[in-house]
Design a protein that fits this description.
- This protein is of the alpha+beta class and about 280 residues long.
- Helix content is about 55%, strand content about 15%.
- It contains 7 helices and 7 strands.
- The strands form 2 sheets. The protein has a 5-stranded mixed beta sheet.
- Helix 3 crosses helix 7 and helix 4 packs across helix 5.
Length: about 280
């Protein structure tokens, strides 16, 4: 449209043309921004899928090695555990000697737990869910994770009066609880306090939560964001699979797990699980 035509055009028509142009420009801008957002979202999803494929490939390789190692390690471990148990019974009247046998048994249990974590992490978890009371599963896990109640750890429990019902695989969830409890116990080598709380999720969410709080030194801030990363550990002899496996199990149950520091001392792990 040239200048002469614009001069002949009715002002109202001209304003309407400009308004249509502005609306069209705004729609194009919005579509462009929406398209950019979608492209960014797809790029993130693609990066996540690629990372999952790389992780699965690494886990498949590690899984083959773990199976071979587990087979070779478990046989001598079983023999050591048997003889240490017999020795512990024979030395019941000699407490100072008996405690040495107890330490051997504790070391064997730690090694067996490490082997189980490695095998569990490198294989696809077979989840068989059923409705259970999380307090009961946690109680069983506690005595497996910290069998020696005289190690100086004081336990405080506070549960909701109603059953903490959730639909989970009891064995898998027990493994997750054991790993978190062992982590808490290792954070308090000289003893301390372990606070266990359980309740029902508020609002529209239906399910239950479990909180485990230790009185250890807490988690360094530069480590806190990586505590659930596979093969990440601040311990000299740790594989770094315990908390990672716990997270994997919880996520397989459509739940969430988080870790925070609790001033002035200690760390808290919170697990939330849906009722069904």
């Amino acid at each position: 449209m040239n200048i002469e035509v614009l001069r002949r055009t009715d002002p109202s028509e001209l304003m309407e043309l400009f308004e249509q142009f502005n609306r069209t420009t705004e729609r194009l801008r919005f579509s462009h921004e929406e398209l950019q957002g979608r492209v960014a979202e797809l790029s993130r999803e693609l990066a996540e899928k690629n990372e999952e494929l790389r992780l699965k490939s690494r886990l498949a390789t590690i899984g083959e090695m773990a199976s071979a190692v587990a087979h070779e390690v478990r046989n001598p471990l079983g023999a050591i555990e048997l003889y240490a148990s017999m020795l512990e019974q024979d030395l019941r009247e000699l407490p100072q000697r008996s405690v040495l046998a107890s330490k051997i048994l504790a070391g064997v249990k730690t090694l067996e737990s490490t082997v189980q974590n490695l095998l569990a992490f490198t294989s696809a978890p077979a989840v068989e869910k059923k409705m259970v009371d999380l307090a009961e599963v946690l109680s069983e896990a506690f005595w497996l994770a910290i069998p020696d109640s005289g190690r100086g750890i004081e336990v405080e429990t506070e549960f909701h009066p109603q059953p903490l019902v959730a639909e989970v695989d009891p064995g898998q969830m027990q493994r997750a609880f054991i790993n978190i409890l062992q982590n808490a116990a290792q954070a308090m080598p000289e003893g301390g306090r372990l606070t266990v709380e359980g309740g029902l999720l508020a609002g529209e969410r239906h399910g239950a939560f479990i909180e485990l709080t230790d009185s250890g030194p807490g988690i360094p801030e530069d480590v806190l964001a990586r505590v659930f990363n596979p093969f990440f550990s601040t311990k000299q002899n740790g594989l770094g699979l315990g908390l990672s496996l716990a997270q994997r199990i919880v996520q397989c149950h459509q739940g969430t797990i988080s870790a925070v520091n609790v001033p002035p001392m200690g760390a808290r792990f919170r697990i939330e699980l849906p009722a069904a």
